[in-house]
Amino acid sequence: MRIRIRKRVVESKRKIILIKIIAVLSALLADAIIFLFMNVDPLRAYYEILRAAFLTEYGLTETIVKFIPLALISFGLMVVFKAQTWNIGAEGQLLMGAIVTTWVALNLGFLPSYIIIPLMYFSGFIAGLSWALIPSFLKIKLHVNEVLTTFMMNLIAQKILEYFVYGPWRDPHGWGFPQTAMFPENARLPILPGTRIHYTTLLLALATCFILYVLIWKTTIGYEIKVVGGNIEAARYAGINIAKIVFLTMIISGGLAGLAGVGEVGGIKFRLNPNVSPGYGYTGIVIAWLGGLNPLGVAIAAFLYSGLLVGGDALQVAMRLPQATINIFNGSILFFILAFDFFTRYEIKLER
Amino acid sequence: MANKNTTILIVAFIVGLLVGTAIGYFIPNPGTVPKSEYDNLKNQLQEKEALISQLQDKLSKLEGKKIKAAFIYVGPIGDYGWTHAHDVGRRYVDQKFDWLETAYAESVPESDAARYIERFIKEGYNVIFTTSFGYMDPTIDLSKKYPNVLFFHCSGYKRSKNVGTYFAEFYQIYYLNGLMAGALTKTNKVGYVAAYPIPEVVRHINAFALGVKEVNPNAKVYVRWIFSWFDPNKAKEAAEALISEGVDTLAFTEDSPTVVQVGQQHTKEGKQIYTFAHYSPMLKYGPDTVVSGQLVHWEIIYQDILMKIYLGIYNNTNLQNVDYWWMLREGAVELGADFGVPINPKFVPELKNKVLDHPQFGKISVYDLVMKRLAQMKEETVLFDPFTGPIKDQNGVLKIPAGERASHDLLWSIQWFVDNVVGEIPKQ
Questions:
Q1: Of the four listed, A7, A32, A48, A211, which is most buried by Cβ atoms within 10 Å?
Q2: What does the alpha-carbon distance between residue B149 and residue B124 come to, in Å, rounded to a whole number?
């Protein structure tokens, strides 16, 4: 008897979804064993996570709060990954968005909010976009691998952020602590009362989902992006301007990450400090893949993943389990989904 | 014959009662006590009785009352420093008070702190300790949303009627370490590996440098920032760089024992390096290099706060001015690289042999000077403060006039180095 692995000729949507569901179930099964070893009823643990993330009003609003930056970033990464361009720099692009927005909020606070808030979004978008332009330029002109440059740009952005909050922008009334002054009231994004949801950013994220769907499936540019991603030689042969596609997709993804940065400082923190993002830029990479690089899929993945992050607290707060349990839980779900991804592209047959 | 005895007792009691009543009826003359005084006494008795029942009520409530305290930690409880030390404090009070129930959440990112706090409140926790500076804004925001919950924020400066602040401060100990460093250095170059240029760290470097200066006016303190609270690689790089520049004594503010390990390595290879531990007992990482260090006792502060909440001294209306800034006097901090070992015995003879002519104490060994200063700062009235003028900054500007002690606010926001420090603070 032999085992044969063959690449699937047709990747059926139905099968892909089925395989993903099986992957999640296997992950839950594996975690159940771990929970049992810790003397915890796995069903109760799962219920607590579910309840904390989706089944209470508070949990749901908090899931949406997390969804906003993660969705914006992963939508952008979806586009750039489709063109087989590897932007690992969303974290830095988010930070640059946050930094420039902070400058606007602190220096142009005299403007009425209907001017300054659009201006904050705009400047954040431009900042993230510009930060993505540097590695794009290096890739196109000097053929420098963008995986390295985008990643290194993250570290530089963090250093720039630290320079400002430890140096010139330090709040003069903040006893020397590394943070800027609070944003003036009119430079704070509107919030749904009783929650932390800055709904203008949420609307932007949802609009982005729709726009990107149209861009990728209904326009020539979208077609070109897919061709460049599918087969770069074919694209070149067909006369597609590859540099243009790389720049465009990097710009979209950098700009959207910049918007996420605007939301974090303008809608959550109301000031800049060294800990703007708990790694949203990296989590976005995972979500873009989990969502199968398709707008609806990414939106769903972002929502569920946000729930996973939010529901994870229940393990600490309600179940009194250590933080490491959450990491194991989230990690195993990722591990199984990525491992099972293999089966969506290959089929295994037993032959006698 | 117990029954018979009891009967006799009861009979005797009744007889006594009757006789007593009779005597009482006849002997005092009711006419001599005015009615007003009688009423007055009766009123007083009633008042006292009311008070007693009130107190009893309170007591029984207290006996049934549970305080549920939640701790929000920035790192994992298994780190070698900050969060671990707070968790030692939490476990101490949890075990000590049977009316207290505690819980914690570890590795909570700043942007998620609000959610964790709110979840604990929804689970019925009524006292919240937020143990990182970055949690300040969410703590204040939630204190408005939940006015019946008591909050205590560690290391911040914002308070309100239901938010107090607390901090275990090390500068006195850094000064004591500085005394020893100044005495031990042979090269007159003392190094300092520093995390971030925030007032807390600047203050500690200054206190350390003031100690160095007191015993060795020729020595300078060389500062290297690593811009991280925990980064063994950068700490190692900084320590090695300082040593290669001729430094033979190292202090640091960073949450790993790296600097001590570097010192141990060099000492083993034949070049004696003196180091001072930070935050956790690190003697075991460098038995041949660690001289002393700083240790924290958060449990002293947690115990005081929780006891006062339990007794009703602290409530949700009176925390506006509750700010713990506890040091040696209160026992919130300790000198040493291990609990109960103020100075590594290996270096005690050297410190005892080093005698200097001190303006205040005359001829005195550095060992005795350290012990004397330690005792002075432990005194109820705190007989000595390292930040006593005249103190000049690096540019020679007099910052604290002769004879004056630095105020809490000056130390809390200090952004300049004393004159024997070599290094820069990023400009604002």
A1: A48
A2: 10
Q: Are the beta carbons of B199 and A264 separated by less than 8 Å?
A: no
> Tens digits of per-residue pLDDT, B110-168?
888 999 999 999 889 999 999 998 899 999 999 999 999 999 999 888 999 999 999 99
* Number of structural domains chain A divides into: 1
Beta pairing partners, A7? A346
How many Å apart are CA A206 and CA B222, to the nearest integer?
53
Max CA-CA distance within chain A?
78
Range of the domain at A171: 68-302
Hey, which residues does A349 pair with through a beta bridge? Answer: A4
- In a 10 Å sphere around its CB, with 0-12 CB exposed, 13-18 middle and 19+ buried, how is residue B88 labelled? middle
**Would you say the ipTM is above 0.90?**
no
Facing B428 at nearest CB: one of A167, A322, A323: A167
Does the domain formed by B64-158+299-326 have CATH 3.40.50.2300? yes
Quote the distance between the C-alpha of residue A298 and its chain's center: 9
pTM: 0.83
**A77 to chain B, closest Cα gap in Å:** 23
**B chain contacts of residue A320, beta-carbon cutoff 8 Å:** 103
Residue of B119, B120, B226 for testing the chain A interface, max A β-carbons within 10 Å: B119
Q: What is the CATH number of domain B171-295+333-422?
A: 3.40.50.2300
Residues A166, B426: C-beta atoms closer than 8 Å: yes
User: In chain B, what residues touch A270 (CB-CB under 8 Å)?
Assistant: 137
Burial class (CB within 10 angstroms; exposed 0-12, middle 13-18, buried 19+) of B243: buried
- Which residues on chain A are in Cβ contact (under 8 Å) with B133? 177
- Angstroms from A270 CA to nearest CA on chain B: 9
Q: Using alpha carbons, list the distances in angstroms from residue B218 to B276, B386, B400.
A: 20, 18, 21
Asked if A268 and B111 come within 8 Å (Cβ–Cβ), the reply is: yes
Instruction: Calculate the alpha carbon distances from A78 to A209, A297, B113, B371 in Å.
Output: 11, 10, 29, 65
Q: From the CB of residue B1, how many other CB atoms can be counted at a distance below 10 Å?
A: 7
Is the Cβ pair B111, A277 closer than 8 Å? yes
CA distance A151 to chain B (A): 19
Backbone Cα Rg of chain A:
22
Contact (CB<8Å) B133/A58: no
B171-295+333-422 and B64-158+299-326 share a CATH fold? yes
Question: Are the C-beta atoms of residues B219 and B190 closer than 8 Å to each other?
Answer: yes
- Residue B371 half-sphere exposure toward CB, CA atoms < 13 A: 10
Total H helices, total E strands in chain A: 13, 2
Residue B215 tokens, joined: 């015993």
pLDDT in tens, A248-288: 999 999 999 999 999 999 999 999 988 889 889 999 998 99
Indicate the burial class of B427 (C-beta count within 10 angstroms; 0-12, 13-18, 19 or more): exposed
Closest chain B residue to A164, measured at CA: B428
User: Is A313 within 8 Å of B134 when comparing Cβ atoms?
Assistant: no
Per-residue pLDDT tens digits for B357-396: 999 999 999 999 999 999 999 999 999 999 998 999 999 9
Return the number of other C-beta atoms located less than 10 Å from residue B397's C-beta: 9
CB contact under 8 Å between A313 and B115, yes or no, is: yes
